[in-house]
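user: can you give me the structure for this one chain? tokens are fine.
assistant: on it. calling the predictor now.
[tool input]
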Amino acid sequence: MEKRFKLLSYVLSPIVFPILGTILYFIFLPSFVPEQQVYMILLVVFGGTYILPVLLLGLFKKSNLIQNFFLKSIEERKFPTVMFLGIAISIGNLLSKMDAVEGLTVFFFGYAFAIACAYLFLMARIKISLHTIAIGGLTAFIGCVSHFYALNLLMFVGVLIGVGGLMMSARLYLKTHTLKEILLGYSIGVIGQVLMYGVYNM
């Protein structure tokens, strides 16, 4: 069981969710977006939220700023969290200047809000789960897409909720977080997306 939960945590690392959410957005998006623009956005998101963090975390590890990619201690998490926040805001700002992808702007600003909250909790010596922030945020985002475009994605949202439950169980079983930290992460991930969706629809 431990090996399976570790594999789940690796495969569904927080840095996977931005590109996953972007791909799902273009799959479900009913309006037309030029194919060239889609590929450009996917390339920017993949490079900015996956390749860049992996390279920087590797650099941090070599510089002994972190022990491993799991960022187990509060001190280890502070600088990478600021890095993730900067990336989310930068991509959100870039997307806000493009046509027909307002939903993705909401997605990245929602994550930025959640990551900023995670950093504030770190300052209070509380290490909330970035894994559950990520899955909670993606679940809420798909729910918002479903509501905005009047799409029936209830079954898919249900699958994501199930994955979220598995992720919570994994983090708890591996003793990487307390139940409070896991639930806080999931809640903040959801709140960030719903809040930004509300702001953009005012």
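assistant: here you go. The chain has a mean pLDDT of 90. Helices lie at 2-11, 17-28, 35-62, 74-96, 102-123, 130-148, 154-173, 179-200.
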